[in-house]
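Project standup — Tuesday

K.O.: blocked on the structure for the chain from last sprint. Re-posting the sequence here as requested.
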Amino acid sequence: MDKQPTIVTPRVVILMLFFIVVVPMLPLLISWRWNWWEAWAYALVSILGFIISRWLAARRNPGLLAERARFLQHPNAEPWDKILAPLVGLGGGLIPLTAGLEARFNSPMPFPLIVKSLALLIILAGYTLGAYALVENRYFSGMVRAQTDRGQQVVTGGPYRWMRHPGYAGALLTYFATPFFLDSLWSFLPTAFIFIVLIIRTRLEDQFLQAKLPGYDEYARRVCYRLLPGVW
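H.V.: unblocked you, prediction finished:
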């Protein structure tokens, strides 16, 4: 049931190189400040975070990477997610791009080291939470769709015991802390944009799952919070 087409295609290779390597390196490539240690650390954490999380997910859930590699190619993806999912990717790329432009042209005032240290810890926490959700949830697709071809069931273990969308929560932590770590005030604009998009996507996905996935409605009554325990 989990049988998927091969994930190693030219399209997948190009997209992976762009989003895994080029996007995290944008602050360095745009600013041309090769002694910018925060940008090097950001790129390293982003690249390693992706590689390690996908390696762990592939070991735990064979077929998941193939599912995610078919991004925007699922014929039964929800129409609204065909808009929101690319917007999430766009927003995620605009944050390091804006930080690189600001460093090149505006010489931003750096945040105190204690603030950047805390921001780095939050970034790491965000990647850890997102990876935990990815490994735990064998149905963690890149698109919101009814995965009847994969026998989708409600996932209740790991971080899903505390919140219904921990992958989004981890992403929001990382996006929130990145402008502080890269000393970029302008990056808060794409950060605010991606917060709005992800909150809308979370609400719509939750409504979709309650309507279409057997058992999710009962799970939602038991686990009350979508993204932030105690708040929402």
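K.O.: great, moving the ticket to review. The CA atoms of residues 79 and 192 lie 23 Å apart. Residues 10-222 form a domain with the Four Helix Bundle (Hemerythrin (Met), subunit A) fold (CATH 1.20.120.1630).
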